[in-house]
Design goal:
Elements lengths: L36 E5 L7 H4 L1 H11 L3 E5 L3 H13 L4 E6 L1 H11 L7 E6 L5 H5 L6 H8 L3 E11 L5 E4 L2 E5 H9 L8 H13 L5 E7 L6 E12 L21 E7 L3 H14 L7 E6 L1 E6 L4 E4 L2 E5 L2 E14 L11
Parallel strand pairs: 1-2, 1-3, 3-4, 4-15
Antiparallel strand pairs: 5-6, 5-15, 7-9, 7-13, 8-9, 8-12, 9-10, 10-11, 12-15, 13-14
Helix pairs in contact: 3-4, 7-8
């Protein structure tokens, strides 16, 4: 079994050496029932939803004889530390109770040193796009019922290196431009709003004073760099959607060893406002000013430097180098989903 270098290791751009790459399907870990699942709870996720469902989860576990331990965390740093401690202690399965940002913390805590551990997500956050990709319903209790009989599959993750030299993993979507500016509001004054409305209202707020980005996009496939004078956003996705269902990469697969680069040209305000109804109701972005392509790794530079987010968390500033780590971790998915880990 290949090993993953410890967190903080420096990698060459587009290296594929990082990552546990089991064949598909991934077999369950032996003796998985010999110890309880650990459910790490982010109480702030979903505007407090994760905390609210705790009594229901406890009753559900008792009724279903689910061998599970629920552990409440106090902060992102505490969540990370508890996940690392559990992994070091030999825990076989760790499930994040929260959203995409919560699962990102779990991945960064566990995958670099313990790729054999099976991870899961019980959706209780503002954005639950990874859970959707794993065939899990938005209702956390319905998702818990499916996790009892879950399959295990391999999941690609995204590695980003920022201008500050920091490296971080994410599993859903990340980008620079309007979405990154919106992420700052979504984690601030609008953090308690539910679902997609949180991200849409954050984007509307971010439009005030927003200036289109000037970017240079350099893919790894030998093509000439793409220079854009005015872009609304440039994002790189592993899942089909981010921001609670905004489907910017409808053809994305989460285990194909590729990422989806999505570029949206700058749009006049009236056109943005015209797109909002379909974005709000169906998560669709219907405009001809979108360019999509598959990449294994890409470098994004902006002038001047801008913030980059991953799964709604600001990770640093540009320039950023982004690459896929194929099948880097093992995750729980709803039973009966397709081999691509997506909904059947």
């Amino acid at each position: 079994m290949g090993s993953i270098p410890p967190a903080g290791t420096t990698f060459s751009f587009c290296s594929s050496e990082f990552g546990h790459q089991p064949s598909e399907p991934v077999p369950p870990h032996p003796n998985i029932a010999s110890q309880p699942d650990l459910l790490l709870v982010n109480p702030a996720a979903g505007g407090g939803l994760a905390r609210e469902i705790l009594p229901h989860l406890q009753r559900f576990a008792a009724k279903q004889h689910w061998s599970a331990e629920l552990l409440l965390t106090e902060s992102p740093a505490d969540f990370y530390q508890k996940a690392r401690q559990a992994a070091s202690a030999g825990r076989k399965r760790i499930i994040a109770v929260g959203g995409d940002g919560t699962f990102q913390i779990l991945v960064n805590a566990v995958v670099p040193g313990f790729p054999q551990i099976v991870l899961g997500i019980l959706p209780a956050g503002g954005g639950n796009d990874l859970a959707v990709s794993l065939g899990l319903p938005a209702d956390p209790m319905a998702a818990a019922a499916l996790l009892l009989d879950a399959d295990t599959c391999a999941l690609d993750v995204v590695r980003v290196r920022t201008a500050e030299g920091h490296e971080r993993l994410y599993t859903g979507g990340g980008g620079v431009g309007l979405d990154a500016e919106a992420a700052r509001y979504a984690s601030g004054p609008f953090r308690n709003l539910p679902g997609r409305s949180r991200y849409l209202l954050s984007a509307i707020r971010a439009l005030a004073g927003f200036h289109a980005i000037r970017a240079t996009i350099t893919p790894s496939d030998g093509e000439a760099p793409l220079r854009i004078d005015k872009a609304l956003l440039a994002c790189v996705l592993n899942t089909r959607s981010y921001g609670a269902g905004l489907a910017l990469a409808p053809d994305a697969q989460i285990d194909d060893g590729l990422l989806d680069l999505v570029l949206v040209e700058d749009l006049p305000l009236w056109e943005i406002l015209g797109l909002l109804p379909k974005l709000a109701t169906r998560g669709e972005l219907k405009t001809k000013r979108v360019t999509r392509r598959s990449v294994a790794c890409v470098r994004i530079e902006t002038d001047p430097p801008r913030h980059f987010h991953g799964d709604g968390e600001i990770l640093g500033t540009t320039p950023v180098e982004i690459s896929v780590v194929p099948r880097a971790c093992r995750v729980l998915r709803a039973p009966g989903t397709s081999s691509s880990c997506g909904p059947a």
